[in-house]
């Protein structure tokens, strides 16, 4: 978050009130988005995403493991976020570590989805032998530059990286003791991880009496609070969190959710269109 003067704050808020932001965008407009695919050779899927000056990198690794005893018929998703000390002065020391934990918690909640289903990764499909073997999906993210709306950028990069991830095909057979055994298939090309229901997080903030999306770093200090709305490709809201020390104007809350529902599916469609154009390699 940038450190701005009172005069700069007034200028930014007045511009938003008139629907002309300092960079020329309207209140409901995102900054230019650029996506690079498969940028980490050691990962099973990876993506680097630029949202204006915000720069994040996400890599995915998939490994065989043991299901949690509390959910023996499901795989697991583990998320970590590291904030580079070069990304923002606030990330030096404990500041970056604490922010990384907070970002990872919010991102993991959107990827795991709700108990009712219909969002996030299908954890049941990641289970190979109930109670014995499942896929463990590790999503590791790095914030390279904080130019605002880091959580939104991470959610888009994570969805792209998961969609690019290919999982080894496996064969389950019974051994001499009538116990199931899991063996990796000899086929070089794995199966794609199903990320169709993974949402992105659209952050909508209250600045003055207006709702604004995709705040730049210099706009973030002007926000009273933000609503982070996890939206899937069908415009369904599958998660909702708030940040900021102030309360949200009740008259704006519904509008903020509707803005997220309107913008989310279009962003997902753009990401998916790019990913579908990438040739599959073994």
TrEMBL record:
Gene Ontology MF term list: mRNA 3'-UTR AU-rich region binding
Annotated Gene Ontology cellular component terms: cytoplasmic exosome (RNase complex); nuclear exosome (RNase complex); nucleolus
Gene3D superfamilies in UniProt: GHMP Kinase, N-terminal domain (3.30.230.70)
Transcription regulation as UniProt keyword: no
Subcellular location: Cytoplasm; Nucleus, Nucleolus
InterPro entries in alphabetical order: ExoRNase_PH_dom1, ExoRNase_PH_dom2, ExoRNase_PH_dom2_sf, Exosome_comp_Rrp42_subfam, PNPase/RNase_PH_dom_sf, Ribosomal_Su5_D2-typ_SF
Main location: cytoplasm
Keywords: Cytoplasm, Exosome
CDD domains: RNase_PH_RRP42 (cd11367)
Pfam families in the cross-refs: RNase_PH, RNase_PH_C
Top-rank taxon: Eukaryota
SUPFAM superfamilies, alphabetized: Ribonuclease PH domain 2-like (SSF55666), Ribosomal protein S5 domain 2-like (SSF54211)
Record domain Exoribonuclease phosphorolytic: where: 29-167, 197-262
GO biological process: exonucleolytic trimming to generate mature 3'-end of 5.8S rRNA from tricistronic rRNA transcript (SSU-rRNA, 5.8S rRNA, LSU-rRNA); nuclear mRNA surveillance; nuclear polyadenylation-dependent rRNA catabolic process; rRNA catabolic process; TRAMP-dependent tRNA surveillance pathway; U1 snRNA 3'-end processing; U4 snRNA 3'-end processing; U5 snRNA 3'-end processing
Similarity comment: Belongs to the RNase PH family.
Protein name, entry field: Ribosomal RNA-processing protein 42
Organism of origin: Tetradesmus obliquus
